[in-house]
């Protein structure tokens, strides 16, 4: 009888034993990539890393129980992604690829809860697997262009049944902890929103009867702190001599031009013909991000040309912003 009992105990330990060991590893950085300042301010940007610093190998024969835990505590000396001018982009860390499971900085989050570890299959095989993390930026960040980054400290702490025998008996627990760091970065690029109404000269029987279009404005809301210039192209049909812009109707042309502010200096696209952000009539200087800078201009049809045949004359002028 004694021998039989010893044999049964040995069978219990041998037939069902399975080891699942975890360790803290070097993370894979999370990069949001290059995003325009406007997109950063108006749309939550997603990112992720497939390796948040916890790696496990092995297999369990049952799902995690209420006694099993995988805690992660995220801390940092910063409050978000810090940029070159001191601006900060806030973001939230999530335990899965939805916004259902946000992590709070400084508070332990249990990945064993809500089935996250089970869904990952972290303990479901012999190949090492790592815990992914997900990120989403906070709306409303009005920031300058540049590289934004933060280094997170992640303290992993776990306690779970690492071996299950016949009958579901736990044969041993894996209890350990460790700290790793994770770098998160995002590059903000310069951008603008542009409001530029069309120019309409109306109609007239002869070129001398057209009146100048005055009080026209172009509104630009460009990246916070950006110095830029604004250019207007020569249109689709510029004169090869004299450089005047021309509207076209069929094979006929009507020369006109666009001038800076209320003056007679032509607004062009090259060199000094462009306008600098410091030259804006409203809010001159570098870009504001959320506020508009307004550039005034006027336009006129040249009266020293022969009146062309009647028709609807059109041209397209490209506005470009250079940083």
Automatic annotation (TrEMBL):
Q: Does the keyword Ion transport apply?
A: no
SMART domains reported for this sequence: SCPU
Boundaries of each Spore coat protein U/FanG domain copy? Answer: 16-153, 179-318
Taxonomically, which superkingdom?
Bacteria
- Swiss-Prot/TrEMBL keywords: Signal
The record's listing under PANTHER family reads:
MEMBRANE PROTEIN (PTHR37089:SF1), PROTEIN U-RELATED (PTHR37089)
Record protein name field:
Spore coat U domain-containing protein
